[in-house]
Amino acid sequence: MGLRWISLACGGLSGGVTGSAMGQIGYAIAPMIARGIMLGPDQPVILHLLDIAPAAEALKGVKMELLDAAFPLLKEVHATTDVTEACKDVNIAIMLGGFPRKEGMERKDMMSKNVPIYKEQASALEEHAASDCKVLVVANPANTNALILKEFAPSIPEKNITCLTRLDHNRALSQIAERLKVYVTDVKNVIIWGNHSSSQYPDANHATVATTNGERPVKELDTNDHWLKNEFINTVQQRGAAIIKARKASSALSAASAACDHMHDWVLGTPKGTWVSMGVYSDGSYEIPKDIIYSFPVKCEKGKWSIVKGLKIDEFSRAKMDATAKDLIDEKEVAHSCLN
């Protein structure tokens, strides 16, 4: 197979600070990519690692570790603080860096830091990335960061810019598996609708579980409607905060793994009969407003995703889906105000 160039944009630009050593997600995901977890066991890769200037020495150390691991698939590693160099000819760009929300900081304050970061990175991708570049935004606010990137990289097809809600999707799978005392691989087709924030809607209405008697709907196996409409949703929505409380740091290993899952399925395809959740540019499906990056159920084939159509939406789900859409519209307006 031909080489794939992958850029990990790990640090914020224009004054943004996200930590050192590429940040915890970057440090976790780089060896996963090098081992073939993201693109398969036969796909050689070249990694471009980007961070801010104060982290240059730590970034050099990460490069040394990657080389010392002697990953067979890893053909080259470029560590740089130059966004142009990091974006040159890349086929895949994973945007990990951003300015984190700090205590006492209003949403607009955080966005005023992130908008110029993603505007600058968008310009670099626009000018220097490969024409087929696939972009995954991980840094929060992920949906709106991806939207800003899309607006300032107009030559990148809108279907090539996505944000990460696979982490929430995986959390939903694991909560159902734990609840029903089955393996997580037995559960499929949960949905994360909307924003990668506490307004997201984790939906188990269409999820199924593989049993000895064939696939059965989750709602048949767990008839406790109260759990599905309350504790399940709240647990998935607040899982990130619970992890921060427990480990005094945000999700890193699970986020890196989810980013690999997202790109793996996007590039190599989803299994037959299975969908996953991706934050994508809305085309108006399910009465969701256009011109926002919104998480839908999608199937992937031959490097392209498509929204799963025709799912029945009940009144409870409709209200939740509309609420998270409104949250994204509000975020979009705040982000645009930061451009003025």
UniProtKB/TrEMBL annotation:
<dbReference type="InterPro" id="IPR001236">
    <property type="entry name" value="Lactate/malate_DH_N"/>
</dbReference>
<dbReference type="InterPro" id="IPR001252">
    <property type="entry name" value="Malate_DH_AS"/>
</dbReference>
<feature type="binding site">
    <location>
        <position position="171"/>
    </location>
    <ligand>
        <name>substrate</name>
    </ligand>
</feature>
<dbReference type="GO" id="GO:0030060">
    <property type="term" value="F:L-malate dehydrogenase (NAD+) activity"/>
</dbReference>
<dbReference type="InterPro" id="IPR036291">
    <property type="entry name" value="NAD(P)-bd_dom_sf"/>
</dbReference>
<protein>
    <recommendedName>
        <fullName>Malate dehydrogenase</fullName>
        <ecNumber>1.1.1.37</ecNumber>
    </recommendedName>
</protein>
<dbReference type="InterPro" id="IPR022383">
    <property type="entry name" value="Lactate/malate_DH_C"/>
</dbReference>
<dbReference type="InterPro" id="IPR011274">
    <property type="entry name" value="Malate_DH_NAD-dep_euk"/>
</dbReference>
<feature type="domain" description="Lactate/malate dehydrogenase C-terminal">
    <location>
        <begin position="165"/>
        <end position="334"/>
    </location>
</feature>
<feature type="binding site">
    <location>
        <position position="114"/>
    </location>
    <ligand>
        <name>NAD(+)</name>
    </ligand>
</feature>
<feature type="binding site">
    <location>
        <begin position="138"/>
        <end position="140"/>
    </location>
    <ligand>
        <name>NAD(+)</name>
    </ligand>
</feature>
<dbReference type="InterPro" id="IPR015955">
    <property type="entry name" value="Lactate_DH/Glyco_Ohase_4_C"/>
</dbReference>
<keyword id="KW-0816">Tricarboxylic acid cycle</keyword>
<dbReference type="Pfam" id="PF02866">
    <property type="entry name" value="Ldh_1_C"/>
</dbReference>
<feature type="binding site">
    <location>
        <position position="140"/>
    </location>
    <ligand>
        <name>substrate</name>
    </ligand>
</feature>
<feature type="domain" description="Lactate/malate dehydrogenase N-terminal">
    <location>
        <begin position="17"/>
        <end position="161"/>
    </location>
</feature>
<dbReference type="InterPro" id="IPR001557">
    <property type="entry name" value="L-lactate/malate_DH"/>
</dbReference>
<dbReference type="InterPro" id="IPR010945">
    <property type="entry name" value="Malate_DH_type2"/>
</dbReference>
<feature type="binding site">
    <location>
        <position position="101"/>
    </location>
    <ligand>
        <name>substrate</name>
    </ligand>
</feature>
<dbReference type="Pfam" id="PF00056">
    <property type="entry name" value="Ldh_1_N"/>
</dbReference>
<feature type="binding site">
    <location>
        <begin position="19"/>
        <end position="26"/>
    </location>
    <ligand>
        <name>NAD(+)</name>
    </ligand>
</feature>
<feature type="binding site">
    <location>
        <position position="107"/>
    </location>
    <ligand>
        <name>substrate</name>
    </ligand>
</feature>
<comment type="similarity">
    <text>Belongs to the LDH/MDH superfamily. MDH type 2 family.</text>
</comment>
<keyword id="KW-0560">Oxidoreductase</keyword>
<dbReference type="GO" id="GO:0006099">
    <property type="term" value="P:tricarboxylic acid cycle"/>
</dbReference>
<keyword id="KW-0520">NAD</keyword>
<feature type="active site" description="Proton acceptor">
    <location>
        <position position="196"/>
    </location>
</feature>
<feature type="binding site">
    <location>
        <position position="51"/>
    </location>
    <ligand>
        <name>NAD(+)</name>
    </ligand>
</feature>
<dbReference type="GO" id="GO:0006108">
    <property type="term" value="P:malate metabolic process"/>
</dbReference>
